[in-house]
Amino acid sequence: MFRSWVAAKMTPEKNPAMHAWAAECVRALEIERASKQAEVAEQAQRLQDLAGSANVAAWRSPHVLALTTAIYEQNAFDLMTTLGAALADAGCRDTSVLKHCSLPNHVKGCFLVDMLLGKE
């Protein structure tokens, strides 16, 4: 009985201010949900950047290992785009790994170089 009374009082015609407030709350919740989804996607990307990909062992061709060793030992991180091409040739289809290789400003500690070399 109470529900039917409340429902009757909450129509937009009978209580426009309450209806507008409720609509604004729904919009705010939708914006918050979209923001949280974007935050979760960003956090997932950060975790992947830290943890890397589980398929690294399959990409360790002699060419990839030689190139990765040279990058690491000579701080030749300008060769990361070349490493990306070598990984693709070795069967890597992980777009996030290949994209990572095309990004600038790599340094020692790069998760991909470390994982390819088996460093912890």
SSE topology:
Blueprint: H1 2-9, H2 16-51, H3 62-73, H4 80-89, H5 95-102, H6 111-116
Describe this structure in words.
With 120 residues, this protein is mainly alpha-helical. It has 2 domains: 2-51; 56-116, no CATH class. The chain has 6 helices and no strands. The protein is rod-shaped.
Task: Give the key terms.
single chain, mainly alpha, 6 helices, 120 residues
Number of domains: 2
Helix content: 55-70%
Q: Give helix and strand order, one letter per element, not per position.
A: HHHHHH
* Helix run count: 6
| Whole-angstrom Rg | 26 Å
Average pLDDT confidence is 82
Largest sheet report: none
Number of strands: 0
> Quick one: overall form?
rod-shaped
Contiguous low-pLDDT stretches (5 residues minimum) are: none
Q: Structural class, judged by helices and strands?
A: mainly alpha
> What portion of the residues fall into strands of 2 or more residues?
under 5%
For the record, give the distance between the C-alpha atoms at the N and C termini, rounded to a whole number. Answer: 65 Å
